[in-house]
Amino acid sequence: MKIKRISVQGLFGRHDHTVNIFDGGLTYVHSPNGCGKSTLIRMISLLLTGNVKELANVPFQRLDLFFEKGENLIVVRSENELLVQMKRNELETELTSADLASLTGATFIGPERTYMKRGDGHIVPAAEAYANDLSNKIKESRKNRALTVPEYKDDMGDDKLIFWAKDLNAKLNFMRDAGFTVDIPAGLKFPPTRYDLTGSRKEYLDLVHGISDFVSKNHHFSESVIVFRDIMNSFLSDKDMTIDAKGHITFVLDNGMTIPVKDMSSGEKQIFIILYRLLFQTLPGSFVMIDEPEISLHVSWQQRIGPVLKDVARLRDLQIVAATHSPQIVHDDWDLTNELRAGSA
To answer: Which residues are bridge partners to 341 per DSSP?
Structure first.
């Protein structure tokens, strides 16, 4: 479900705000300090994850989310409790926390993002934790090069089979850039020609269906790895992020020296963390809230982060709302900006 507009009334007893969510994937919320923009996007995060109890601790009177197909999610305070309803076709239905969490995926990237809490409760540096997590995922995904053949019907002609194989081969070539390869059975080549199918059609059918299964399982992840690496390297000027054959992530300086993730600059870690959260911890189609993306970024990087967020939003069909103090983050995109002012929308 895509969100088109957000409004809040009585925030801190004095602010009424409306935020329009723009097409194209990226929306900015810009305001002076104290107008409630950070609180507002945190409220949306609490609501969309079903955390109504914590949301009730925020002082406001009413919160509305308007969706593109006409639905209206209404949160109204009644004494110290919140009534949460979805209005569809003039009918209002009360929602549970589970109902809220199923409406749309939600990711909140707060300003205190350089450290994170692990499952065991320990607080650790986020960039290092994410790098280790990604390395483990890459190693695990690259492990299985053998193909498994799912059940299928032999209901396609040779031309269709050859066309499908060529399409799969293009995807395999792309995935190889992230280190994802498959073992082609001896005696077969891929993609096959019409001549290759003669006398070996069943073997090639098995191969094409096996590769299709491999691509469907790994293409999204390998694409994320490649996009992550390429965007990181587009920001770096004196080094390159590399992912070796074992999945280890390191940075190689121009002089050949390697440095680990923990020795990155604070700005590099910020880009690393935001990209990791978007590409590996956010489901396609989700609503994403980023508070103060400008933290630790040079002005030139602040101006570049917006186009990157737009590209990732298009790639993953995300709606990204970035709350910022910085006009450099907005840069040339004031038409995508909601400016909040004290007291009124």
So the answer is: 344
